[in-house]
Design brief:
mainly alpha
């Protein structure tokens, strides 16, 4: 019910805002809406196009949430290992400006929490931002999900798992639902709920086939379950979009798979395939 109410309020608010807005603000909103849809396809060209649309939207109507989404785009560059050497510095600057301009906007706080944690590795600060997001809007799924992710990284695994569950409960049919399942899958890994982690990863794979993070732990999960053929298939598909992928690489501290390493799944090796 909260998810439905939250979605209705959000849609109504968007229409009300546009009804009283200038023509420039309406155009900016349409650009930003298109940008988010493109960004969530994960493909590099689509993320680049989304960033350009958001930059244009901000020029026409300087809303801090557009800056927050541009910062979020940098987290996709980082997570997908796209070659964007300036992404970290840009993410930091965009997130900082968004927070300074609108420190009580729940969506801004949730998006920048993810950026500060995942991209900048400032997990204590990310936790603070996500907590504020949930306080500002207890029915925002992104706030709960990224609060859960921050708790996971800070070692509060069960609390993190509960928050990601809450995020999914509130999400309705949000276009970023695969991101929420990704966080939930990691929380399931961290708490030893391997069957649940596998289900979450398979759901994300169906929703966003080229999205890398959940596909990374499909291989060791299948191996743990003795599903060697499925593990080999997942390995081969992952190698197509990330040629350097291997279980050995995932054990490196520089590889974005801390929770997978901490879960104990990487006791297997590439030779087990």
């Amino acid at each position: 019910m909260l998810a439905l109410i939250n979605q209705a309020v959000d849609v109504a608010g968007q229409y009300l805002n546009r009804a009283g807005s200038s023509p420039e603000a309406c155009v900016a909103f349409r650009k930003a809406f298109e940008a988010v849809q493109r960004m969530l396809k994960i493909e590099l060209a689509e993320v680049d196009r989304a960033d350009a649309l958001l930059a244009s939207a901000y020029e026409e109507d300087p809303r801090p949430v557009y800056l927050a989404w541009r910062a979020y785009a940098r987290s996709i560059y980082a997570g997908e290992l796209y070659d964007r050497p300036d992404a970290i510095g840009e993410a930091d600057e965009l997130a900082r400006h968004a927070i300074e301009a609108d420190p009580h906007n729940a969506t801004v706080l949730a998006l920048t929490s993810h950026v500060c944690g995942f991209v900048l590795r400032k997990w204590e600060f990310a936790h603070q931002l996500a907590e504020l997001s949930v306080k500002c809007n207890p029915a925002l799924s992104l706030g709960h999900t990224y609060l859960g992710k921050a708790k996971l990284e800070l070692g509060e695994h069960e609390a993190g798992y509960r928050e990601t569950c809450r995020g999914l409960e509130l999400s309705g049919q949000a276009p970023y639902r695969h991101m929420l399942y990704t966080a939930h899958g990691l929380a399931s890994l961290a708490t030893g709920r391997f069957d649940e982690a596998l289900r979450a990863a398979e759901i994300v794979h169906a929703m966003a086939p080229i999205f890398r993070p959940p596909r990374r732990y499909l291989v060791p999960l299948y191996l743990r379950l003795g599903e060697r053929d499925k593990a080999r298939d997942a390995y081969a598909k992952m190698s197509l979009i990330e040629p350097s992928f291997s279980l050995k690489a995932m054990r490196e501290q520089s590889y974005p798979s801390y929770i997978i390493r901490a879960s104990g799944l990487l006791s297997c090796s590439d030779n087990d395939l």
